[in-house]
Amino acid sequence: MLARISAIILLAVPLACADNGADTDTDAATAAGTSTVADPTTTEPTSSTGGSTTGLDPSQLYSCKEEMFGAAPFAGPLWDAEKGGIQGALQANYVLHTTQIYVRPESGEEFGMLAEAVGAEAANIDGLIAFSVGSDNGCGVARTMGIWASEAAMYKLVTSEAHAKAMAATLDVSFTGRVTHWTATAAEANAYTWDVARAKLADVAPSPLY
Asked: Is residue 16 part of a domain?
């Protein structure tokens, strides 16, 4: 059964507040309505609009062009895109994170439930500024990006029960993934986009555990 990653993931993080922010390379609603995740036994084209796209070779997975990518806008307790992004007294620095996960087609539903639980946990963490999720069904990839007040706040999510459960299921629900985080100024945090997230992951080594 094909995994409708966008439909699941774009609704997985029920964060309140802003309805605007991170760029969406294509209309999220359109992407969420598609289901063209490739057969994982193929290693043919590397395009999210051209049939088979993802094989088990990580180089094939990571070379897939996300031409159907859609994302939810940044949302969070201290974020308002219409007012410039981060609200309240600005800090000198913030912590930004991003993840990239290639989901097994047969595990889309399980992955979605795990992601929903992690998103709900994130929404309750003091120190979360904003969070966004995105995906490309053609490439079978799900992404997240977040802004945190501190590394300690981010690690509250990493060490949470929901996240631990998701990490324990990594080999069952995904082929490979990668994650990174870094320190950024307030100006850089307010300008955080998916293009920035992709660039930060470019040199991170893929792993079946992430």
From this structure: yes
